[in-house]
C-alpha cells in the first residue's frame, strides 16, 4: 500500500478530491492510504504562529522553519523511508513519466504545501524532491499536491481497472497525445462520428487512431 502524507495549512481542501472517484476507490481497495497533517498544529505559541516576515524585507509572509521541520519529522516518524516532496514553482516540472516512476516506487511520500510568499529556505535540507506543476504561480501548494497525487494514485496497480488503460493514454510514451474519441449517438446536431470508427474494421481504426494521435509540443 502506498502511504501518502500531506503537510498543509488547509487540510479541508483535500476532502472532495481524495474522497471522490479514483482516489476514493484507491483507498477503498487498499492501494493507498492518505494522511493529512495540519501544519497549524505545529505552530508556535498560543496563537500557533506558522509564518513570519522575510529577512531582508519584501512583501508577504513566509512559512517559519520550526513548524515545518516539526511536521516533517512527525511524518517521518510514521514512515521513515518516505520521500519528502516540496511543491514549488522552482521545482522539477511534473510529467507523466515521473507519475509512472513514483507509482512503481515502494516508498511513501510526504508532500509539503507552501503558502503565502513561500517558505523558509532551510526546509529544503529535509526535502528529497522539489516539484512544480507548471510555469505559473498558484496561491498555495495544495492544488499542485493534489494534481501530483492524483496522477500517481490512478497508476497504482489495480486502481484504473477496466475504466481506462494508462498504456494508451496521452503522454504514456512521453510525447504522444491520445487520438480524438466519440461515443453514442453517431449523429449529434449535424456532427457525425467519423465513418471509420463505425466500420468495425479494426486495422483501419488503429491506422486512423495512429494518424490522429499528435505529438505534444
Ligand atoms: N513567491 C513564490 C514565487 O514567486 O515563486 C510563490 C509563492 S506561492 C503564492 C505559495 C506556494 O504555492 C508556493 O510556496 C508553493 O508551495 C505553491 N505553488 C505555487 N505555484 C506552484 C507551482 N506552479 N508548482 C508547485 N507549487 C506551487
Describe the structure.
- The chain folds into two domains: 2-153, 3-Layer(aba) Sandwich (Alpha/beta knot); 176-215, tRNA(m1g37)methyltransferase, domain 2 (Trp Operon Repressor, Chain A), CATH 1.10.1270.20.
- The chain starts with a strand and ends with a strand.
- The strands form four sheets. The chain has a five-stranded parallel β-sheet with strand order 2-1-6-5-7, with helices on both faces. The protein has a two-stranded antiparallel sheet with strand order 3-4. It has a two-stranded antiparallel sheet with strand order 8-11.
- With 217 residues, the protein is α/β, with parallel strands linked by helices.
- A hairpin with a 2-residue loop joins strand 9 (187-188) and strand 10.
- It contains seven helices and eleven strands.
- Bound molecules: S-adenosylmethionine (SAM).
- Residues 87-89, 113-115, 117-119, 132-134, 136-141, 144 line the site of S-adenosylmethionine (SAM).
Amino acid at each position: 500500500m502506498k502511504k501518502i502524507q500531506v503537510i498543509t495549512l488547509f487540510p479541508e481542501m483535500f476532502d472532495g478530491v481524495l474522497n471522490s472517484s479514483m482516489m476514493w476507490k484507491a483507498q477503498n481497495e487498499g492501494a493507498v492510504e492518505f494522511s493529512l497533517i495540519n501544519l497549524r498544529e505545529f505552530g508556535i505559541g498560543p496563537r500557533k504562529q506558522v509564518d513570519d516576515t522575510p529577512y531582508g524585507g519584501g512583501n508577504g509572509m513566509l512559512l517559519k522553519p520550526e513548524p515545518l521541520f516539526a511536521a516533517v519529522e512527525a511524518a517521518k516518524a510514521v514512515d521513515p523511508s518516505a520521500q519528502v516532496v516540496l511543491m514549488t514553482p522552482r521545482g522539477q516540472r511534473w510529467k507523466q513519466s515521473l507519475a509512472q516512476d513514483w507509482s512503481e516506487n515502494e516508498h511513501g511520500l510526504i508532500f509539503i504545501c507552501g503558502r503565502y510568499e513561500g517558505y523558509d529556505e532551510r526546509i529544503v535540507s529535509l526535502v528529497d524532491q522539489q516539484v512544480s506543476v507548471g510555469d505559473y504561480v498558484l496561491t498555495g501548494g495544495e492544488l499542485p499536491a493534489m494534481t501530483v497525487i492524483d496522477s500517481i494514485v490512478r497508476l497504482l496497480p489495480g486502481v484504473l481497472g477496466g475504466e481506462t488503460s494508462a498504456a494508451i493514454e496521452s503522454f504514456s510514451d512521453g510525447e504522444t497525445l491520445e487520438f480524438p474519441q466519440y461515443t453514442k449517438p453517431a449523429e449529434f446536431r449535424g456532427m457525425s462520428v467519423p465513418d471509420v470508427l463505425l466500420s468495425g474494421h479494426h486495422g483501419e481504426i488503429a491506422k486512423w487512431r495512429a494518424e490522429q494521435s499528435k505529438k505534444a509540443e
